[in-house]
Design goal:
41% of the residues lie in helices and 19% in strands.
């Protein structure tokens, strides 16, 4: 979601009055080089199983290809070539997908689920999270996207 689309969405946000909540903004520092490969591959496989009709063999093949791609990443900097051993490389199409799935499976499913009843509005763009939360108001139809 871009900034303009988000500001339009905020125009329609209705807060309970009186509102004594919190606006929380989080930015994951160095997300891409911090993503553990094994955990991200497991999260991706789980995501594929839950959200695609692909047969098991196809899902496993996707994971094996992903594992090869993320394990064979090289960066050129000032005429030197480096092999990146931690995390994923920024700028690759695969990296954005892996980062989004990792954040969804680790942050949104495991952590934010506990706070769902207090979240009035939530939006995430890769590694940036913005949330409007209530301290007392329980909102049963929170949108977690």
């Amino acid at each position: 979601m871009d900034s303009l689309a988000y500001t339009r969405e905020l125009d329609n946000l209705i807060l309970p009055m009186p509102w004594t909540g919190l606006i929380v903004c989080l930015d994951v520092v160095a997300l891409y080089p911090s993503i553990p490969m094994k955990d991200s591959l497991q999260a991706t496989l789980q995501f594929l199983k839950e959200n695609t009709p692909l047969p098991n063999e196809a899902q496993l093949m996707i994971i094996k290809i992903m594992e090869w791609v993320v394990s064979n990443k090289y960066i050129e900097h000032e005429n030197s070539i480096y092999h990146q051993v931690d995390g994923i490389v920024m700028g690759e199409a695969l990296s954005v997908m892996v980062a989004n799935i990792f954040m969804y499976k680790v942050v949104e499913e495991k952590i934010l689920h506990k706070w769902r009843d207090y979240i009035l509005h939530y939006v995430r763009y890769v590694d940036v999270i913005l949330s409007w939360q209530s301290r007392h108001y329980k909102h049963k139809s929170s949108k977690m996207s």
